[in-house]
Amino acid sequence: MSTPLPGFEDFKDFEGPASAKGPGRPGVSGGRGGSDGLGGAVVSSESGGRHSPETDQSPARHDGWREIAPGAVHVPGWLTMAQQRELVAACRGWARGPAPIRHTKLPRGGVMSVQTVCIGWHWQPYAYTRTADDVNGARVPEFPWWMVELGRRALVEAYQDTAAGDGYTPDTALINFYDDQAKLGMHQDKEERSGAPVVSLSIGDTCVFRFGNTETRTKPYTDIELASGDLFVFGGPSRFAYHGVPKVRPGTGDPASGLAGGRLNITMRVTGLDR
Ligand code: SIN
Ligand code: MN
Hints:
By secondary structure, the protein is of the alpha+beta class. The chain contains three helices and 14 strands. Residues 187, 189, 243 line the site of manganese (II) ion.
């Protein structure tokens, strides 16, 4: 695509350096959830009823925590605004290269409306490689350890289990940028040779996220709204469920995230592939 799309220019040309340490622990300030000062979110009276603080060491549950299907959990407002800004800055760095963000070409001649850049492993339909062979052949950046840790904390939060992140070592992330018109059709994430969960983080404009079933790209499915800072995890029986993004709601994001327009989504995965 030679013509920059609205939002993309802003996304790609940001000059801020990516943080070396990466975003810190979610829940320590801001966002839609509160903090208990220990890195856990404060549990509201509506959502916290099931835990006894003296006997139960389960992570506190964020407001709005919701299981959409078995193993598929939505945690609204998980990332603080500061963490969103750090993620946006890191993603802008990766979007510049060594293999720049691009509209992925599909084998039958189509082009995806979403723009994607990868870290750890490069995904192109329908395989992972270490080099971005459909872009410029460059090796993709290392998957940073801070993002592994963020992924582990995401699983603890989503599954409300302090051990849920143990041993989780995502080694790739697809970073998708959606302008106002971009959509993503119903698909499965199935190039990975691992059943480990997918951790999805959203920043910027709200989208309609369609989460379906493992058998068909059609109904039954559930439409939810993923807003800036939201976490969505799909694993277990839902790991290979069809999902997609039928609509982005332009102008719904807060520029304080570092994204003036559009939607950024990061999905961490375990490829199950060797070094
Ligand atoms: C994806 O399915 O890979 C991305 C999902 C999203 O943008 O929320
Ligand atoms: Mn997907």
